[in-house]
Amino acid sequence: MIRWLLWLLAGLVLGGIVHLAMVLYLPRAATRDAYARLEPITPVNSFVPLPAPTANGSVVPFMDPAFAISVCRYDLSKGPLKVTAPVSQAYTSVSFYTRQGAAHYAITDKAAGRRVIELDLMTQKQRSALPEDEEVTAADRLIVESPSTSGLVVVRALAPEPSQMPMAQRALAGAKCQAQS
User: Global pTM?
Assistant: First the structure.
């Protein structure tokens, strides 16, 4: 009887190890991740509004129909970017993702406290090359360090009612993701 319990316990432990290994491996093996799905429709370093999800599908799975969404596929190999997103009346968020889909920074309109969310996106190496300016404080310049040179910036604006969707889309139309001068 004890022998069967040991075999059962060993099978459960082995099954748990295989399950955990597959859960950790599958995101790296997926070929149709969000970045790959957005690559054909989004140019590098500029925002593109995503079409609203329909009953038949959407560009990226699990899109919320109450949000207008705009995406910038960024590349920091040529230098840092300036990300600017106007704030809508209801709610606006800006999220940063690596090429593999790991979120590394997010900010909302409430945290920004302004009518426009302005961020500088750069790698750690690019940030260390910035000159030290004593007059520029952290409140004046919000810098986001990207762990990779490519990824996605996603801006979402809430439309609490379907009739307010055009207002949310107009707010996102002013979003910019461009190289710093």
Answer: 0.81
